[in-house]
């Protein structure tokens, strides 16, 4: 009987030990499973964050490029309006030295602004070399650069026309 009781006691202790080990193993498995799941979520969130950062940088860069393009177009229109004013002065009548000096100062101001726009455009070209975007995004950026080149040429032609009409207006003084 003592043997049977001892055997039953050893069996119960063995079963308790095995159950305790199984509980420990299941807790370890669930903890490692949770850690694995959390690490996968962290990786996924990190990838999403990188994508969002790239999209933000792209949109910010495009916004700055388009803003510069719009400013250059507006500036070109201002030069054309001033050129039209000189044309009207040429056809209107006699030469006015004060008007000429004012328009000449305006031309110098326009030249300074043109140089500033060229500097900004060159700065964007330098920034472009540091960009790491998809080929689709880079092709869109390149198309905007082409528009900047066109806007630069338009401003240069408008400034030449402005200066030419200003010289015509000045020659009017020599006629009178």
Throw out a few tags for this protein.
single chain, 176 residues, mainly alpha, 0% strand, rod-shaped
Please render the helix and strand layout as text.
Elements: H1 2-92, H2 97-128, H3 135-175
What does this structure look like?
The structure is a single chain. The protein has 176 residues and is an all-alpha fold. The chain is 93% helix and 0% strand. The chain contains three helices and no strands. Helix 1 runs antiparallel to helix 2 and helix 1 (2-92) runs parallel beside helix 3. The longest helix is centred in the N-terminal third of the chain and has 91 residues, at 2-92. The mean pLDDT is 84.
Quick summary:
The protein is an all-alpha fold and 176 residues long. It is built from 3 helices and no strands.
Quick one: biggest sheet? none
- Arithmetic mean of pLDDT: 84
Order of helices and strands: HHH
Low-confidence regions: none
Radius of gyration from the alpha-carbon trace, in angstroms: 38 Å
Per DSSP E runs of 2 or more residues, the count of β-strands stands at 0
Structural classification: mainly alpha
Number of helices: 3
Distance between the termini: 143 Å
What global shape is seen? rod-shaped
Helix content: over 70%
Strand content: under 5%
